[in-house]
């Protein structure tokens, strides 16, 4: 089986984890802050807060921006369900902005039109979550300009996009956003097994993320509101969670971070090969935004014969090629249909979904396996 994505673990990764196992700390030791500092150095963000998944990071990112009952959060329908669920965890309402028909990323024009309507109805969103599908950056300059005009905050769901750049900035620098969230699940660009991180340039937001990650507890003397009871004393200020990352996971993440540039280079090299072999086939690759560089978490194509997508998917799977579809539109899941969403709500997203297919792409994909994917796909489309 050729998977659609796969982690790349070497001896350095194994050694890093084993070293933690025989150290004094399995969790809350030196590796978590070292991984956080590594991500700050890499992205240029001032603060990074490691957690046990990107889902947790999205949840506490919403809380840190004050999302609660009565608030609205908007995101893209072409994403993993976690991008939307985080708003519901906070008791807020979620709604979706239609996508650009070529990239599957949130369309700034659709966002502008929806904002104009919402303003006239008094239903503006508190937060917009932009998702960088495949690692391809959204048009963040346009979305950020709208945030200045309409007063919403921005979370970037960069689960696919550590290692991407846009407008001369690495994603995660938060140049265009309040918070950026990464995932380190094994299929993503780098892995800590399970894990996630939130970056921000705002000290207040970072302090809130740190507190929500660990039960809403604060420990530093300058944050205490009651008199100090002694060396054992801490205070709970909010209702937080246990979303902490362990040192075992952080050691793996930190080791992987040192190879991130190599992974991104390899993923781009393989993507260019796919691009060059597909020019005569009835398909269109989903390309990065001009002027940006993608970490290439996913290599996605749009099939011109979209009515044959299921047949092509089944044929390739039967041949041991684990193609995939990212994603079934979030609003069409039964859970969301029950909340009032329906087919036809987001026409571009629904049309995009019908055409897409994800092909195998990961740094260790061999030339012969990639050639097999290309040949089998060409046979299907002949
Ligand atoms: C994978 C993913 C998540 C969730 O990541 P976890 O670390 O598994 O919680 C969120 N958003 C998007 C777009 C993803 O692809």
Largest sheet: 7 strands, mixed
Q: What do we call the CATH homologous superfamily of the largest domain?
A: Type I PLP-dependent aspartate aminotransferase-like (Major domain)
SS content category? alpha/beta
CATH topology of the largest domain: the name is Aspartate Aminotransferase, domain 2
Distance between the termini: 23 Å
* Tally of DSSP β-strands: 15
CATH top level label of the largest domain: Alpha Beta
Average of per-residue pLDDT values: 97
Model description:
This protein is α/β, with parallel strands linked by helices. It has helices spanning 11-21, 31-43, 54-64, 82-89, 108-121, 140-150, 203-213, 247-257, 260-277, 309-318, 334-338, 347-355, 367-381, and strands at 47-51, 72-75, 93-96, 127-131, 153-157, 165-166, 169-170, 179-183, 196-200, 217-218, 235-236, 283-285, 292-293, 299-303, 356-359. It contains 13 helices and 15 strands. The two termini are 23 Å apart. It has 2 domains: 11-257, 3-Layer(aba) Sandwich (Aspartate Aminotransferase, domain 2); 260-381, Aspartate Aminotransferase, domain 1, CATH 3.90.1150.10. The structure holds pyridoxal-5'-phosphate (PLP). The site of pyridoxal-5'-phosphate has 14 residues, from α3 and α4. Belongs to the DegT/DnrJ/EryC1 family. The active site is at 188 (proton acceptor). Its EC number is 2.6.1.92. It is an enzyme of class 2 (transferase).
